[in-house]
Amino acid sequence: QGRLVESGGGLVQPGGSLRLSCVTSGFRLDYTAIGWFRQAPGKKREAVACIGSSGGGTDYADSVKGRFTISRDKAKSTVFLQMNNLSAEDTAVYSCAADDVNDIRDFCSKSPVLYDYWGQGTQVTVSS
């Protein structure tokens, strides 16, 4: 049974940075795409970024392009989300999720319905 555990959230001032970590277990990352999603109070969940099972394909929401970077360390079974130039609009609970594609792919999907395993989430608050 796969498991994902997020960490790295917290309170940061506008313009600041955070790096979120998603430690995975029970998956072979070579065959698993990982996505980061967020949900703010009163809003529906939205995709932030994803990385394909090959590790070479990434995709981002338009709202975070140029500010956020998704990466992975396969040896540590960990996927990271580096977030720079944060604003209040980035405040949300951030969750990582796994799409067990059972293949090596250079692309990923931002559709949450394809992700079968989810972490518990970590709160990111951007405020002065």
The average pLDDT is 96
Helix percent band? under 10%
From the alpha carbons, calculate the radius of gyration and give it in angstroms.
14 Å
Shape: globular
Q: How many strand units?
A: 11
Distance between the termini: 40 Å
Class derived from helix and strand content: mainly beta
Give the ordered list of helices and strands.
EEEEEEEEEEE
Strand proportion: over 45%
Which stretches are poorly predicted, pLDDT < 50 over at least 5 residues?
none
The profile of the biggest β sheet is:
7 strands, mixed
Features:
single chain; 128 residues; mainly beta; seven-stranded mixed sheet; 11 strands; 48% strand
Describe the structure.
The protein has 128 residues and is mainly beta. 0% of the residues lie in helices and 48% in strands. The strands form 2 sheets. Strands 2, 4, 5, 6, 9, 10 and 11 form a 7-stranded mixed β-sheet that branches. It has a 4-stranded antiparallel β-sheet with strand order 1-3-8-7, with no helix packed on it. It is globular. The termini are far apart. The model has no long low-confidence stretch (mean pLDDT 96).
